[in-house]
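Deviation from plan, reported transparently: MRU complex.
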Amino acid sequence: MQSPTVETMRWRDGRLEMIDQRILPLAFEYVSADSAASVAAAIRDMVVRGAPAIGVAAAYGVALEALRMRHMLPEVFATAMNHGFGLLAASRPTAVNLFWALDRMRRAWEACGIGASQSAIAQRLLAEAHEMLAEDIRINRAMGAHGAALLPDGARVLTHCNAGALATAGHGTALGVFRSAVEMGKKISVIADETRPFLQGARLTAWEMVQEKIPVTLIADNMSGHLMSRGEIDAVVVGTDRVAANGDVANKIGTYMVAVLAARHNIPFYVACPLSTIDLTLATGADIPIEERHPDEVKGFRDCRWAPEGVQIRNPAFDVTPAELVTGLITEKGVVDNATLVRGGLAQWLKACS
Ligand code: MRU
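Because the crystal trials were delayed, the predicted structure below was used instead.
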């Protein structure tokens, strides 16, 4: 397997190191975690973010907790582990990959059996986390190949937020499609929405594309309609944090606006979505929990404030794009087309490809 160009997280000397995405691109530093609590804090504080990356980091959080507590009495070990699972589950609500990863880690723990030593459990959980990291990159590369085939040579492609290597274990979902298209020899160029208020597009997507020398143009979020109306955007590809059974897609706040504009201008709107992001337990997007973040993120950025004290603020971090606006869901198993989504055929499609 090709090694990822950006090592979003890595295992070093018994700790999980994560690129600090709060300070990119001004500084490049790793933050290190040695417990479930410190990984949960890193997820909550956006050191690590993006649905698949949150899932893999949480898996390491569970493994770290087992390693840290392995010499304790069995009751103490079990209590610490369950507490760790709880902290990680409470870190962020929208990305279903977090809960998918925690379920998988719990199953791996249970599969060790009653007689297993705590050291053996810890090693098993660490192996599972390593496997999830490697698997995520494999999945992104498969998704990239399916998605790249949809983009015409020379396409100018808009993306929102950061669904890149930084949002995953490597390669990325939406940006993975761009990387794969370039690897296939297609000359694409990327238009990155800045993505207010946390600026994942301006800081992270722009940084990744510049690092990779993929042509990228940064725009403020309110400029995409203008560019679409002038025929300057050929396709949209975004990532997602959770897809409901009816094909409704939750992604970074502002994605819904982009989808509506794309429909207005007959521009294909694709969502890159690993199967671990599909949540068949939720009937529609209305059931997806939407994270509300701190008002300070809207009042300004870092130390700079531009809104007056006393103003009321809303800060929903995600929105839901109805399935009817999604041209195709790009998964590692292939593309689910709009007709399948709209007739409620997602579950059946998944069954057929499993
Ligand atoms: O709040 P964030 O930065 O975690 O939001 C990330 C996104 O909305 C991404 O588009 C999504 O997680 C898909 S990442 C492959």
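Residues 49-52, 95, 161, 163, 167-168, 173, 200, 239-241, 251-252, 317 surround MRU (CB under 6 Å). We consider this an acceptable substitute for the interim report.
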